[in-house]
Automatic annotation (TrEMBL):
In eukaryotes there are cytoplasmic, mitochondrial and chloroplastic isozymes. This is Aspartate aminotransferase. It catalyses: L-aspartate + 2-oxoglutarate = oxaloacetate + L-glutamate. Its cofactor is pyridoxal 5'-phosphate. One of its GO terms (molecular function) is L-aspartate:2-oxoglutarate aminotransferase activity. Belongs to the class-I pyridoxal-phosphate-dependent aminotransferase family. SUPFAM superfamilies: PLP-dependent transferases.
Amino acid sequence: MADNTFHNSNSTSYLVLLDFFFCLLQNSPAIQENRVTTVQCLSGTGSLRVGAEFLARHYHQHTIYIPQPTWGNHTKVFTLAGLSVKPYCYYDPATRGLNFKGLLEDLGSAPSGAIVLLHACAHNPTGVDPTLQQWEQIRQLMRSKGLLPFFDSAYQGFASGSLDADAQSVRMFVADGGECLVAQSYAKNMGLYGERVGALSIVCRTADVASRVESQLKLVIRPMYSNPPIHGASIVATILKDRNMFQEWTMELKGMADRIISMRHQLFDALRARGTPGDWSHIIKQIGMFTFTGLNSEQVAFMTKEYHIYMTSDGRISMAGLSSKTVPHLTDAIHAAVTRAV
Ligand SMILES: Cc1ncc(COP(=O)(O)O)c(C=O)c1O
């Protein structure tokens, strides 16, 4: 793995952690050819914001398309950075899966050069990800239209339990030699939420562009927060660079992901055993931390009032918050919510 590089300029000094990006890209030609600029940022949110500020200043298109729905903070982060936010079709409430046709239509009619926000894996809030074949179609469409991919990778390892499998979408886009931005968070997959560890990487076409991008990124960062905190990032870098620690981390990550997957099966089996009306197979088809249950806001309010179960009003639950002990209570509540007379 690459060594950390400390970059010092007259006005700023901060860690540039290529190691962070190795987790996603490994030894890709883009890294070997020095076409990637990576700057440490304040977790995933800060990485998105720095990327957005950079694009608002230096990119010719100021429209960013974000999936509908998406993580609630995306709109605010991009709008406040000066980008204009538009939605593209993503989730189909009827199938509780991907509206792939709608997604292709919306991206197909986006203006050339527009920015497109893509969740690298474990889409928040739906838990619905494109298949690899669908990713390939998305890639071809975006490249043919010159759309600029901006990946948000907040949950690498949490979708499948494998860092490599969860990096496939990003790797696909980087492998074609085109440009892209990637915001990475180590908050969840390293359990370092409070340390705000993350990075923004910009993959460029040439090493020369990458070095100019880096100097512009410093100019974005300097007046916002000057330097990122060092200790959390050092923990991550230490683990990524030590073979044994890295192995231990990937095993723990898989343990976490497998537990979430097992919670999905337990909840699905319990609802089926209970005879709760509806097709609950989306619970086991969706991946990552979140399940979009399909429960509506009245049903959510009922479950909160009668069963003291708290979730977002769009029916999203965090599977990580469930345990074998709490599955029966949640099953009772869902059953009552969907069968009660209104
Ligand atoms: C899709 C998505 N992107 C970014 C973030 C922000 O991550 P961080 O906590 O590292 O700022 C989150 C966190 O909830 C998220 O769900």
